[in-house]
Write a structure and sequence with these properties.
Rossmann fold; 12 helices; six-stranded parallel β-sheet; 3 domains; 356 residues; elongated; alpha/beta; four-stranded parallel β-sheet; Arc Repressor Mutant, subunit A
Length: 356
């Protein structure tokens, strides 16, 4: 039994050594490999061990049998080098307005580069997210565009695939990858200051702190209040989780606890829809009884005349495309956090409190 294990170990060692020599270019595409007896003498082992290692490489199409020897496949190096891209794999929780725009743009960019676009959905399930990420990583000729659940994916820090991962819309501390996010701190800061300049002093916030983007928007809200000389009151904040139903309940609770509220900043446009539902139940009108803002500039925001923040999705897509091209050209991508500037979009859902 120990003899069989030793043979398997030798086969694997020789297989990996020869594979690395092919990938590194020591054995060039089209080149005839050394004969069996020469390799036997080089590795000081038996002919069956050498032959089995070569057969493994042939099964992977690294080698082509050129009886009685083997020849390096012309495509072997191209297929194995990590920056010879074939696929872009998007790993995402769900398709919303923001991610749909990114996905559609990626389709266009992939067609330009003759790349295939793959799609994996994890539905905000942490275990499924990791499984889908691992599935997307199986083929080494793939760059993974990951929309993570939140800032708590610590396993990414030590993932062997992090060097070919682009993280979008969330910041993962310690992850050595490009992390492309909208500048949500300054986006929410500018939005809050706009309400203060209109004259609002009792400004509530429907947050989404289970996501790093929601946490950063909350920070921008708080920073704007404090720099405006207004006291930050945590009881004026409630979690809507970026969801319509949860935000409706959150805003009902806020209005019950703080009837003096004259304005509300929502973590995204879906949260604003929830707030509108809560106001309808209470027979209140957005932009008249209470000023309301969203975040994201989703398609629905123009239809409901919602003041919001445009995340400049086109610029985010440009950054993703730039990172893909960096990887295609060099096999590497620059690490770090890359914030994309946001833009305030003023509509009719906000007025000064005197106009109520």
């Amino acid at each position: 039994m120990s003899g069989i294990d030793t043979k398997k170990l030798l086969v694997k060692q020789i297989y990996h050594d020869l594979k690395n020599k092919i990938i590194s270019g020591e054995y060039q595409p089209g080149e005839l490999m050394p004969g069996l007896k020469k390799l036997q003498a080089q590795y000081e082992t038996s002919l069956p061990v050498i032959n089995e290692a070569l057969e493994l490489l042939a099964a992977e199409k690294m080698l082509i049998r050129n009886s009685p020897n083997f020849r390096v496949n012309d495509l072997a190096q191209e297929d194995q080098l990590p920056h010879k891209l074939k696929y872009i794999a998007v790993v995402i929780a769900e398709i919303d307005d923001f991610s749909q725009i990114v996905f559609n743009r990626l389709e266009v960019e992939c067609r330009k580069r003759n790349l295939e676009l793959l799609f994996y959905r994890h539905e905000m399930n942490n275990e499924l997210q990791r499984q889908q990420y691992d599935r997307a990583s199986l083929h080494k000729n793939t760059v993974i565009v990951l929309f993570p659940n939140g800032p708590y994916c610590s396993w990414l820090q030590t993932s062997p695939h992090i060097g070919r991962t682009i993280i979008v819309d969330e910041a993962i501390p310690g992850a050595k990858a490009p992390q492309i996010i909208s500048d949500d701190d300054n986006g929410m800061f500018k939005l809050t200051k706009y309400l203060v300049e209109l004259g609002h002093r009792h400004i509530a916030h429907i947050c989404a702190e289970d996501r790093s983007s929601g946490y950063i928007r909350h920070f921008g809200y708080r920073r704007a209040l404090e720099t405006s000389g207004l006291k930050y009151d945590p009881s004026m904040v409630n979690n809507g989780k970026f969801q319509i139903q949860a935000s409706m309940i959150a805003f009902e609770q806020l209005l019950k606890a703080h009837p003096e509220t004259t304005a509300c900043l929502c973590a995204n446009d879906y949260s604003a829809l929830g707030a509108i539902e809560a106001m309808r139940k209470l027979k209140l009108t957005p932009g008249k009884d209470i000023s309301l803002t969203g975040y994201g500039n989703f398609a629905v925001s123009e239809a409901i005349d919602l003041t919001t923040v445009d995340q400049q999705t086109g610029k985010i897509c440009n950054q993703i495309a730039y990172m893909i091209d960096q990887y295609r050209n060099s096999g590497k991508m620059p690490q770090g956090i890359y914030p994309v500037p946001t833009e305030l979009v003023i509509r009719g859902s906000c007025v000064s409190p005197e106009q109520k």
